[in-house]
Amino acid sequence: MAITREPKEGDQVKYFTNRFLSKRGEKGYTPGAFAKIWVFEGESVANVKYKCPYCLKDGDIQQEWSRPFKFSCGNCGKVIKIPKLKK
Ligand SMILES: [Zn+2]
Questions:
Q1: DSSP E strand boundaries for the chain
Q2: Residue 54 Cα, ligand 1 centroid: separation in angstroms?
Q3: Is residue 32 part of a domain?
Q4: Does the residue 1 lie in any domain?
């Protein structure tokens, strides 16, 4: 069950990123692991869709937007940090 809200045509998104993820201390990226994060204009909640680099399960969450951004995997509970968000 998805709790994130997908952008639809006409929605203004003030922030969007799609990045590969790695485990803590890992060099390079974990194959398949990613996080897609977007924030709608006028909102302070980040929508996150991800594949966890630790347990490789898919998940999605909504969380107050902040920089730097990190969240806990809903499956394994590991903290996933999103490095170096610009702007
Ligand atoms: Zn996980």
A1: 13-20, 34-40, 45-51, 58-64, 69-72, 79-82
A2: 5
A3: yes
A4: no
